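User: I'm writing a short report section on ligand binding and want a predicted complex to refer to. Could you take this sequence and zinc ion and write out the structure as tokens? A short remark afterwards would be nice.
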Amino acid sequence: MTGPRILAIESSCDETGVAVVVGGRRIEANQVATQVALHAATGGIVPEVAARQQLRWIIPTLAAALELADVGWDDLDAVAVTYGPGLIGSLLVGVNLAKAISVAHDLPLVGVNHIEGHIYANWLTEIADGPMPAEPEFPLLCLVVSGGHTQLVLMHDHGRYELLGQTVDDAAGEAFDKVGRLLELPYPGGPAISDAAVGATPTTRFPRARTKGRYDFSFSGLKTAVLREVTAYRERGEPIPVDGIAAAFEEAVVDALATKTVAAARDHGVAAVALGGGVAANRVLRATLDQRLRAEGLALLVPPPAWCTDNGAMIGAAAGYRYAAGDRADASLEAIPNLSLPWLAS
Ligand code: KG4
Ligand code: ZN
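Assistant: Sure. The structure tokens for the complex follow:
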């Protein structure tokens, strides 16, 4: 595979990721240092702690990625970095490192939107030689579900995004994490709820939220419903059926995500739907969407779980296309905590 070899840095939240990606598709190294164990002690991310950990781990992660890819500075064509959205202290660590590398090694700098990275995880492969898997075709419907975002995005072409709908309150991952805390499960709630729900019978059917926008989502009412359910067991002095409540909650979130995604796919005549973001690692979501889309004659694209949660390779994938389009940042690149995708006017 040919194309630019890009060093990609991701430090927007609590994962430190450094990758080497060729041609926006082929991973040569994808090192991730995670702070999950540290944040488990506080039951959530403390931004200042996350930033300090980024500072501590970014150089060892960089060194490990370069060693694994077996490349030196001269082998690289560009350095890319997430410049938003995310936590400001965490973002600054990666942005500052990328700028320093760009200046010191005279490498072009490419700024990448973290959400765009989650979408481009669908372009990644580890295949070293031989024919590449086919690229996703446009128009592509993307469901981005992470700790900070829940968006249905119609991608008309590289870099051309139309926002169809989004959450009006909590992000899907945020809902998983908050309900995980309610059920006294370990942080982060997403994988913990998913594990607890395996094989469990849902205790109830939680109501599905109504939203004004046809493709919007709402999860805060569901969180309140879970709290009410937990409180009812507590008041009756009964043990809380954590697994069954986890299953009922997961079913409600997945149903909401799948229903709106399938409707949007049908309405917009796309050939395929791509999943991205940490919640895309969820087994029930993957299986449900796959089944419902298949029934419509549509394909589901979904990266392996390790490429769904934050990592450097997805930033290298998005950077490959930004680089090819001539996108270059310079020393004035800033970290933008509330950066959004560049929406097409609808
Ligand atoms: O994309 P990501 O790594 O970071 C952000 O950009 O936010 O997503 C993290 C989110 C967390 O809320 C976590 O609970 C959720 O993804 N998550 C999951 C699963 N694995 C991670 N949610 C549901 N099921 C999972 N298996
Ligand atoms: Zn993310």
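A remark for your report: The chain has a mean pLDDT of 96. The chain is about 40% helix and 20% strand.
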